[in-house]
Amino acid sequence: MDIVILAVVIAVVVLGALGGLIVGSRRKKQLPPPPPAAPDITAPPAEPHVGDEAETPREEPRRTIEEVDLPDGSAPVVVEEPPAEAPEIEIPEPTAGRLVRLRTRLSRSQNALGKGLLTLLSREHLDEDTWEEIEDTLLTADVGVQPTQELVERLRERVKVLGTRTPEELRTLLREELVTLVGPDMDRVVKTEPEDRKPGIVMVVGVNGTGKTTTTGKLARVLVADGQSVVLGAADTFRAAAADQLQTWGERVGAHTVRGPEGGDPASVAFDAVKEGKEMGANVVLIDTAGRLHTKTGLMDELGKVKRVVEKQAPVDEVLLVLDATTGQNGLVQARVFSEVVDITGIVLTKLDGTAKGGIVVAVQRELGVPVKLVGLGEGADDLAPFEPEAFVDALVGE
Question: What is the mean pLDDT of the chain?
Fold first, then answer.
């Protein structure tokens, strides 16, 4: 009996031990591994929190609102802007004798025409080949066929009568004949002062690229230098920035500019310019016209319309055609077309300092029967000069 009881006790102990081992192994499998240790990061003290993690506000120093005198609302506060500075008005140099002062600008024409002719005429024997070379020199300088033939015939006669030819005698001879060819008796005064009224009205016409708008601005300086007040009409409404360019020229000498919207009616701008010129008591109104290609019939008709509209208020005293001296014979084609639309009364030759074709002065006068009144001899503001035949020929022939 004791043996049975001992066996039962041993069985119970063994079963209890086995049960403990089984339960312990199950717990080890169910428990997750411990989380890795988080790094010790100190949060910034002022970091805000939201929701359940909100912290209790901490006491911090606070700034107080200062007492400031505020406007009572009775009158708005106006901030005054500094007034815009008016452009400084320039005083152009006098025009008297300006061509003489600018004669060195004709050096290229002098080398090609004056010096070339003197070299040929100085040969000991003037045979037919030499006279042909003289003709070629004149034609190359764009003097024109008819004027060239006339000049060569007169030179032949005078050289034959003269006999012996010293350099000084030849220079005097050539100078006299060239002055005669250029036309010293032509009236070259720009008509800006009609006797019965004010203002004088001057239209400036020409192809784009000849320096037409620039010439209009320079002409304003010429007139201001001679003591006249000027109003500018920016009737070239087709070319971008033409009105701005003309207004800039006017502001430099204190001339008022009348302008319209870009692409607007040129005749309307010209009409308003003359109207304002009358109201202001100006001496002269200069009208810068559109200068698209002279082969466009519609644009040439528009030019004629501008002249007709202006003449509803007063006659146009001058129509100045601006030609680029470097274009040579092509300039004569332009001159013919413009003269058919409006009555050209004078010619302005620009870029005369940049060409060896000084004879264009003679050719264009013969073509139109009107005088060259002004010449451009550089890019400077005061490089537009009244044309003086004697000074021009002296520059060609040299001292």
Answer: 81
Angle at 49 between CA 45 and CA 54, to 5 degrees: 105
The angle subtended at Cα 155 by Cα 170 and Cα 347, nearest 5°, is 95
pLDDT at 85: 61
**243's tokens:** 């009105």
238 contacts: CB under 8 Å, gap ≥ 6:
263, 266, 290, 292
3-state secondary structure 144-201: CHHHHHHHHHHHHHHHHHHCCCCHHHHHHHHHHHHHHHHCCCCCCCCCCCCCCCCCEE
pLDDT > 90: percent of the chain: 32
Neighbours of 368 (CB within 10 A): 19
Provide CB contacts within 8 A for 216, sequence distance 6+. Answer: 204, 232, 246, 249, 286, 288
Give the pTM. 0.74
117-125, Cβ contacts within 8 angstroms, sequence gap of 24 or more: 117/174, 118/167, 118/170, 118/171, 118/174, 118/397, 118/398, 121/155, 121/159, 121/165, 121/170, 121/173, 121/174, 122/165, 122/167, 122/170
The contacts of residue 318 (CB under 8 Å, 6+ apart) are 190, 191, 192, 200, 201, 202, 203, 345, 346
35-88: pLDDT as tens digits: 555 455 555 545 444 444 445 556 655 655 555 555 555 555 555 665 556 567
3-class state of residue 203 by DSSP: strand
What's the CA gap between 72 and 66, in Å, rounded? 18
